[in-house]
Design goal:
The protein is of the alpha/beta class. Helix content is 31%, strand content 27%. The chain has helices at 32-41, 73-81, 87-107, 123-126, 138-151, 177-185, 221-233, 253-259, 265-282, 338-348; strands at 17-19, 47-50, 56-59, 61-62, 110-113, 116-119, 128-135, 156-157, 167-174, 190-191, 196-197, 208-211, 242-248, 291-298, 303-310, 314-316, 320-322, 327-334, 350-357, 363-370. The chain starts with 16 loop residues before the first strand and ends with a strand.
Length: 373
């Protein structure tokens, strides 16, 4: 799939996409180019994982995981989710399909009881819903919202929400996780018709940040807690706000290994796109070619690791020497236990209100609330 030289044609419905991308959009505040070069230089502690054969994979270099979603990475990742072996998407979707009514009632201010449904907020609030979709790629985000508006005519184009309406309005927010946090912290998501903050600093409205797809578990539990505290302690979430987080808890090694298979053509295309984008970003095309995708389960840490192994010796820019056979880490996915997840939420100042699980009970959807405690 080549989407680097052929921009997507848009149908120009005039959907509302707010571009909040900063010059860096990273956790460190550095540019993406600087982050790639710092990571691939390595020089820090060496890490290792024991293979089933008893051998070791050692590494000290990495490439930021976010680079995999640049270019046409989002489209390529969606192609992976359609693979029958990629259980993560199906498992989380099955929870929504089974409990969609209950989840919707809770988010809209109603509560399910054994005697039926009890209304706990006015219908006016339930009919005034603003859905903001966050993504890294502007054109792809705009195109997806256009498609959503066509498929779901009951939704309201966020650009037109100044007109009287009753229902759910949709807009896009283009940026990284870190851009979005800054945007929310500064009181973002403003209704242009009234200049009234839709979510922050307006007690009439609650917000719910939805973090789905188990990308949350790219972080080690202690790092995940530190990351979530930025939401709970720095003004992003107010008391009474929610988060809806999906977490894959599967530790069936055969199932997990198949989901990220290094023999999968879809995964190989996705990884190659990331390398191509990294090479283009740093200005050295030698970074793009002659790598092999390697995927391994790390039993000791309870995580899955994705690498590329260099098929030859290479020099990236003037000062980065990568040996033939050397591994560079691209991504990791921790498979939390339920206790891991509950510990993360507790350390973050979030209270678990509900947990929904799939049939094998190895995937959870947690509804969390920031309380005043």
């Amino acid at each position: 799939m080549d989407c680097h030289n052929h921009p997507r044609e848009l149908s120009h419905l005039g959907v509302d996409v707010i571009d909040i991308r900063s010059s860096c959009g990273t956790a460190t505040g550095k540019s993406l180019k600087e982050e790639i070069l710092d990571s691939i230089r390595g020089g820090g502690d060496k890490h290792c994982v024991v293979e089933e054969s008893g051998g070791l994979i050692e590494w000290s270099r990495s490439i930021p995981t976010g680079i995999l979603y640049e270019g046409c990475g989002i489209d390529l990742y969606e192609n992976i989710t359609r693979d029958p072996s990629y259980y993560l998407y199906r498992d989380e979707l099955s929870i929504f399909q089974e409990y969609s009514h209950e989840i919707a009632m809770l988010l809209l201010g109603t509560a399910a009881t054994r005697k039926g449904t009890k209304r706990i907020s006015s219908s006016r609030h339930a009919k005034n819903i603003h859905l903001s979709l966050v993504d890294l790629q502007y054109a792809q985000l705009q195109s997806r919202i256009e498609q959503l508006l066509r498929e779901k005519p009951d939704l309201v184009n966020g650009r037109l929400e100044a007109q009287p309406h009753s229902g759910v309005s949709v807009r896009g927010v283009c940026g990284s996780y870190y851009d979005a946090m800054e945007f929310l912290r500064d009181g973002g998501l403003v209704d242009d018709s009234s200049r009234t903050p839709i979510y922050l600093h307006n007690t009439q409205f609650r917000k719910c940040l939805m973090w789905l797809g188990s990308s949350f578990t790219n972080l080690k539990p202690v790092q995940a807690a530190k990351f979530l505290r930025q939401f709970t302690q720095e003004g992003v979430l107010q008391t009474g706000d929610f988060m809806l987080i999906g977490i894959d808890r599967c530790r069936d090694v055969e199932k997990v290994t198949a989901a990220y298979s290094d023999t999968s053509e879809r995964w190989q295309q996705y990884i190659q796109n990331g390398l191509y984008t990294a090479a283009h970003t740093v200005g050295d095309e030698s970074l793009a070619e002659d790598w092999t995708y390697v995927a391994r389960w790390d039993a000791e840490e309870g995580r899955h690791l994705r690498f590329v192994r260099s098929d030859r010796h290479r020099t990236v820019l003037p000062d980065i020497e990568i040996s033939a056979g050397e591994h560079v880490l691209l991504a990791q996915s921790y498979k939390y236990t339920r206790q891991d997840a509950l510990g993360v939420f507790d350390m973050s100042g979030l209270t678990v209100r509900y947990e929904w699980v799939n049939q094998p009970d190895d995937c959870s959807l947690f509804l969390l609330e920031k309380t005043g405690l």
